[in-house]
Amino acid sequence: MSVDINMSVTGNSPEALNVQQKLSSALGLLGIFIMTLSGFNIHFQPKIVWVSLSLIMVLAGIFWYSKVSYAHKTEGIKNDRIYFKSLTNRGFWAYILGLALTGFYIVLYFYPNWIGLSSEGENTGVVALFDPLSKAISGNAASQWFVYGTLYTLAIVGFGVKFLWKYRHNRYQRLRTFSVMFFQLGFAFLIPELMSRLNGDNFSLPYYNFINIWPLNHYNFEQYRVDQFVNAGTVGIGLLIFGVLSILIITPILTYKYGKRWYCSWVCGCGGLAETAGDPFRHLSDKSQSSWKLERWLVHTVLVFVVIMTTAVVYSYLNTDKYWLSGTAFLISVASLLTIVFTWTMVYKRQELQNDAKYAAIGFFVVILSLLGLHFSGLIDKIFLFEAETLRATYGFAIGAIFSGVVGVGFYPIFGNRVWCRFGCPMAAILGFQQRLFSKFRITTNGGQCISCGNCTTYCEMGIDVRAYAQKGENIVRSSCVGCGICASVCPRGVLKLENDTPAGRINSNEILLGNDVDLMDLVNQNK
Amino acid sequence: MGQEHIVIIGNGISGVTAARHIRKQSQKRITLISSESEHFFSRTALMYVYMGHMKWNHLKPYEDGFWKKNRIDIKQAHVSAVDHKNKELQLESGEAFPYDKLVIACGSKSNKFGWPGQDSKGVLGLYSKQDLESLEDHAPNKEVCKRAVIVGGGLIGIELAEMLATRNIPVTLLVRESHFWNNVLPSEEAKLIDRHIREHHIDLRLETNLEEIIADDTGRVKAIKIKETGEVLECNFVGLTPGVSPNIDFLKSSDIELNRGVLVNRKLETSVEDIYAIGDCAEQRQPIGNRPSIEAVWYTGRMMGETLAQTLCGNPREYKPGQWFNSAKFFDIEYQTYGWVFSQAKEGHTDFYWEHTDGKKCIHIQYEIESRIFKGINTFGIRLRHEVFDRWLTENATVDEVIKNLKSANFDPEFFKSYEKEIQNKFQHTLKTTSL
C-alpha cells in the first residue's frame, strides 16, 4: 500500500543534522581526510605530529558528536528518528558508507601497497604516516595491519564512548561496553604490540592476541606459528597450550556459566566493533524465518570448513615426524573428539534438535569420518580430497578476508552490524552450540506483560524474533543470541531479563500467559 | 458436512488470539474481518512508527505468510450491520457474508465529548492505523505544526505528547485532574510523572479543561479555548485523548443487547445465540471484582480471546481473569502494577510509599490495616517479576512478607543498583512511627 511506503520512510522530512553535529562530523572526517591525503603521498612532516593530530581529530569528532546528540537529553532509550535518517535507514549515505568501508577492506587485504606498504625499503603513504606510532609501541615499522589495528581500536574506543553516553542509564550496557573497550585496547592492540618488543635474534613469538581464539583466529595453529611457539621455550609452549585450552576447556566453562555473551559481546574484537561502531545499524538485521534458516546452514558449514581445513593443515606438517605428536595420532584425536561430541549430542540432546539440524549433523559427521577412514585405508591420498594448502588459502580468502572483513564490516549500513557473527563466525557457531545445549544462560520473560510491540525484535542485531517468544511467555534460548541485552533495554514494559540460572526448566514453553486463571492455563498447556 | 465457519470482526489482539487458539484445537473455518489493516499489528506500538523507532512492518507480530499457513482467512471489509436472523453480515460493499458463529472483537473508538469544533480538520485521537496516517499529515514537523494541544491526561495523551516531542513540536497537555492520571494514580506517583512530563518541555496544564476548538475558514483547527481562563491557544493540531469507548455503532440496528458496550455474560456470550463479544468492546453485565465492566486493555483482550477459543472448541469456559496487572511507559519511566492500588486507599486499607532521591523511581503499596494483607503495588523505574506478585496476591501474602522478600521479585537487568534495603528501612521506620 502506498500509505505504508510513505509511513515507513516517514515521508518527506529526512532528518537533518544540527550545526554542532555537522561540525563534529566534519572534524572527524577531517582526521580521516588527513590520513587519506597521506595515502596520495603528500608528505606530512613531522609524521608523529600529523598521525597524532589525525587520530585525535577523529576521536574528538566522535566525542563531540556524542555529546551534542545525547548530553542534553534525559536518560533513557534514544532511538528517536532512526528510521528517518539516511545513514541508518539504508538511504544514500548508508550506501556511500558501505562502499567506503568495502573499498577500505579490499585495499587492506589485497592491495596494501596502495596505502604504502613496502616489503623492501621504507614504507610510504598511510602506512608510513603510522610508522612513528608503531615504533613507539612495538619498536617496529608499521604494517597495513598496524594501521588497521589502530583504526579498529580507535573506532571501538570512540564509538564505545558514544554508546556509553547513549545508554548511560543502563549499567549492564555500560559495563559490557567498558569491557569490549578494555579488551580491544589492551589485549587485542597494545599487549601483542608490546610483546613483539621481546623478540630478538634468538627469541621470537608470533603475534598473539589472547582474545582471538581458534577457530575465529583460523591461522593460530599453522606451522610457522607452531614452530615459533615451540622455539620460544616455556613462554611459547605456554601460549600454544593456552591456545588449545582456550577452545577446549576455558570457553566451554565460561559459556556454561554465562552463555556465549561472555565472549561475543564482552570480549571479542569483532563483537566489540559491532557493539560500538556498529550499534547505529543493529536494527537492519533480517528477522525473517528464511534468514534464520540460511544462518543455521551457513554458520555451521563455515565451522565444518574450518575444522577440516585446520585438521588438514596441522596433519600436513605433523606428518613430517618432526614433532612429538604424530600425524596419525592427531587425526585419531580429532576423530575421537568429534565422535564424543556427536554421540553426546545425539544421545542426550536429540529431542532439542530440529530435524534439519539432526540430518546436517549426521551428514557432516559421516562424511568427515569416512574421509578420514578412506585416508587411513590408503584409498585416498589427501585426507579431505584437497591439498591442505588449497584449503588453507581458500578459507583465508573466502572466509577470513571476504566474509569477515569486506562483507562483515563493509555491509554494516546495509545488513546490520552482525552479519559475520551471525552467518559466518565459526567461533560463534561453537559457542552457540554450547549455549543452546549446555548453558545456564537464558532470557526470561516477565509473565504476561508483553504487548507484542516489536522493539525487542527490531533492535536484535542477530535477527532473532524475540517477540515471538516473549508474547508466548517463553524463555529465549537461541544459539545465536550474543547476550547484548538490548532487547531487555528497549522493552517498554520490562518484560525481558538476561539471566544465568539452573539449566533445569530453562527451555519452557507456556502457551498461555500469566494473568488468566490457573485452570485455563493448565488446560491450554495440556492441549498443545 | 463442511466445517463450522467462525467469523471474527476485528483483527486486534482479542480477535487474533481467539483465532489462533481456535486453530490450535480445531479444523474450523476461521475468517478475520477488518477494515483497518490487512494484517494484525500491535496497536500499542503505533507510537514507535511516528517516532522513527520502527517501521510499519515491525508492528506485525506474525510474518504475512502465517495466516495462510494456519488457514485463517483474512477479509478486508467494513461491517455495516449484523443480521442474526439470517446469520450473515452486511458489508459496506453491499456483500452479505454468512457465519455460523460470530465473534465481535471490534475494539474501541476515541471519546469525543461534544466540544464545539471537535470535527475540524487536524483534530484526532490516536487509536487506529488511520489515526497515525492522519497524524503524519497534520503534524509531520514543527514547520507544519507550530503547536499541538492534547486534551486528556491518560495513557494515550502522554504517549502522544512523547511522540510529538520527538519531532520537536511544542506540546500543550491539558489535564482535567489536579495531577497527571490522578484518577488512577495516587498523588505521589502522579506528581512524579508531572515533573517528568515537564522535564521533557511539555507545557503541562493541570485542572484545565477544553472549552472549544476554533477552526479557520477551511475548517482546519487554528486554536483552542481554555474553559477556566478563557485563554486562546493557537495550534495546528489537537489530540483528543480522554479515553476510548466501544466501537459499536454498527450494531445499533441489530437485536444484540448493548449498553456502553456489547453486553456479555461470563462466558462472553451476547444476548443473541452464536454471537460472542471479546476485548475492548465487550461489557460485562456484572463487573468482576474490582475490574471495570469494560476493560480496554491489551492483556484482558488477549485473555478473553484465549477463553472464548476454549468455549468455541467445546470446552465451555467462563472468563475468569486472574490477578490484575498492567504496565505502561511514561517517556523514560517504566510503570508496572500488580493487584490494586487506588488513587485513594480504600477504607480499612493504607499506603506505603517509597521514592528514590532522584525523583524518578518509586513504589507504592496498599494493604489491609487489620490483616496486613498485601493488596497491590505500583512500581516506577524498577522492574518487578509478574510471577512472584501473582503468587503473593493469590496466597494473600502480608505486606511484611512482600517487603521482606522484595528482592526475589526484582526483574531489573543484571548489575542494576537495587533499592530493597532502602525500601525495607523506610518501611520499618514507617511502622515504628505509626505504632508510636
From TrEMBL, chain A:
GO cellular component: plasma membrane
Keywords assigned: 4Fe-4S, Electron transport, Iron, Iron-sulfur, Membrane, Metal-binding, Transmembrane, Transmembrane helix, Transport
Domain of life of the source: Bacteria
Pfam families: Fer4_5, Fer4_9
The 4Fe-4S ferredoxin-type domain, residue ranges: 441-469, 472-501
Membrane-spanning segments: 23-42, 48-71, 92-111, 145-165, 177-195, 229-251, 297-318, 324-347, 359-380, 392-415
Keyword Aminoacyl-tRNA synthetase listed: no
MF-aspect GO terms: 4 iron, 4 sulfur cluster binding; metal ion binding
InterPro entries linked: 4Fe4S_Fe-S-bd (IPR017896), 4Fe4S_Fe_S_CS (IPR017900), Electron_Trans/Redox (IPR051684)
Signal peptide from the UniProt entry: none
Keyword presence, 4Fe-4S: yes
Protein name in UniProt: Membrane-associated 4Fe-4S ferredoxin NapH-like protein
From TrEMBL, chain B:
Matches recorded under SUPFAM superfamilies: FAD/NAD(P)-binding domain (SSF51905)
All residue ranges annotated as the FAD/NAD(P)-binding domain in the record: 5-286
GO molecular function, one term: oxidoreductase activity
Classification via Gene3D superfamilies: FAD/NAD(P)-binding domain (3.50.50.60)
Keyword Lipid metabolism: no
Pfam families linked to this entry: Pyr_redox_2 (PF07992)
Keywords: FAD, Flavoprotein
InterPro entries: FAD-bd_OxRdtase, FAD/NAD-bd_sf, FAD/NAD-binding_dom
Cofactor: FAD
Family: Belongs to the FAD-dependent oxidoreductase family.
Name of the molecule in the record: Nitrite reductase, NAD(P)H subunit NirB
